[in-house]
Amino acid sequence: MLSFLTLETAMDRDELVFLYQLKEGICQSSYAANIATLAGLPTSLVQRAVEVSEYYRTGKPIKRIDKASSDEQAKRCQSVVEKFLSLELEDKDLDLQGFMKDELLPSAGELLNRS
């Protein structure tokens, strides 16, 4: 009642060719890197994706390559935590929502935009 199907492909020299024909079986490898290259993604990005995929497949740790950005991110997070810890939470006039809006959300937005 269940069968595995995949698309037929062929290699023409170094180029992957999709034949758009179903065949029985499962895909033995991912063609994501080939498709990303065909879609025009930068070569360095595709190479990094292949590298990360291989690390994941073999169970090796995946190391970040944006160390400077990680250090900057840690400093921003530390700054937000320090500002939060300096708040007088017992103060009835404390505008915690204002703090969240003014301090936390902009910092989170900057971090997300850098990712």
TrEMBL record:
Coiled-coil region(s): none
Matches recorded under InterPro entries: MutS, P-loop_NTPase
Family affiliation: Belongs to the DNA mismatch repair MutS family.
Protein name (record): DNA mismatch repair proteins mutS family domain-containing protein
Organism in which the protein naturally occurs: Ilyodon furcidens
Phylogenetic lineage: Eukaryota, Metazoa, Chordata, Craniata, Vertebrata
